[in-house]
Amino acid sequence: MKKLLIHGGSVVTDTTIERQDILLSVTGEIEEIHPKIPEKHGEEFLDAAGLLIFPLLIDCHVHFREPGLEHKATMETEARAALAGGVGTVCEMPNTDPPTVTIAALADKIRRASKIAGCVIKFFFGVTEDAHLHALRELWTGTSMELKRMKHHCAGVKVFFDHSTGNQKVTADLAGEVFKVCGELKIPLVAHCEDPGINQTSARNQKPETRNIALHSLMRPPESEAVAIERAIGLAQKCQTPLHIAHLSTTQGVALVRAAKKSGVSVTCEVTPHHLFLTTDDYEELGTLGKMNPPLRTPDHRTALWEGIADGTVDCVATDHAPHLLAEKKVADPLSAPSGVPGVETMLPLLLTVAAGQSPQPNQKLKTKNQQLSYSDIVRLCFTNPNRIFSLGQDGIQKKAHARLVIIDPSVSSVITPVNLRSKCGWTPYEGWETTGKILRTVQ
Fold first, then answer.
1. Which of 14, 195, 315, 320 is catalytic?
2. Is 47 part of the annotated catalytic residue set?
3. Which of the four, 53, 60, 241, 350, has the lowest number of CB atoms within 10 Å?
4. For 128-172, how does the pLDDT look when each residue is reduced to its tens digit (9 = 90+)?
5. Residue 22 sits in the same domain as residue 95
6. Number of folded domains in the chain?
7. Residue 395 and residue 246: Cα distance in Å, rounded?
8. Do the Cβ atoms of 272 and 318 come closer than 8 Å?
């Protein structure tokens, strides 16, 4: 293996874009980074003039389905999709089969992930009963080398306030104990915030003979998220818990997180590409391919999410990558279709398109003056912040760090088609969308 000189590219960080040459050692370490590095005989040379160089991004919310649901996806297939989309680190959720609620289940996932090349996979621990909470404490405080090794692979804890895929809803009493333990041990706690009482009441109020997919958004209304977020913030404040709100989707949710941050609560949040780009207006075209939890919202909520990105309320963009097979999605009763959409491979192309000042949706313009990003914003939202929040230990583009780079031509456009995607499920809600910014290669 030769040294590699990447010449003339623009290195993107969370604050700057600077033309830099990057020299990689034979072991892949960044040996030098400088505006001008002289070319030497024998080095491999990569002309990156006019290209962007990002760190491999982080998706802090994915479902890779293994073990137990390999007919939908595997760690290998979805890691391949992630890398093709410029994502080199993911945080995987506990609702597999068996769920990641024991030390043995976590150890099994770590063993499986050790066989995956190129993509770093960290795991969240789930809690649905007291025994799982005891296991979590043992994992976090254990002194054996094996427990310390497993803790290194654990990004934090995930709690579901209401049922979603995998049925890991936590009771109110146990939720309080989870917040208490996570506050005591400073474990990042990710909360899926929907209120079960409001969801049940809303579902009962719908006409049973009307089985339109758009009812899904009415059965899990914005008030459900708001009430659950308010509760989670209250528990976090009481217990001094480092709280992260998963897949924020509502105007009310953004306002609650914004106010909590101003009052000093340790709370962060993420939004998904599907909530940033899709709304209830898209049900007519997508049908059950637009079904997820929390559901699609009306356009005013989407505007609020972009405003949350603009003012710094939103910390991360994460995909909630949740592949299901088309046969599972396209069922006679649309409301019985499983919730979730794939997204790990399409996140970066969609965001690059907005950064280029364009809308990826066919025949549409950007929706609002606040629907805008810079390339540095993408690094902040999809690398720096998740890396810090979950202590993932990934190095940026810096001297002596191992190179984990994605090289992009910002001038090239392409159309998203399922045939070109690597996810095992074989479909995307963004089929036919045109993106600006082509991922040319990864270096790692």
1. 320
2. no
3. 53
4. 999 999 999 999 999 999 999 999 999 999 999 976 655 677 888
5. no
6. 2
7. 24
8. yes
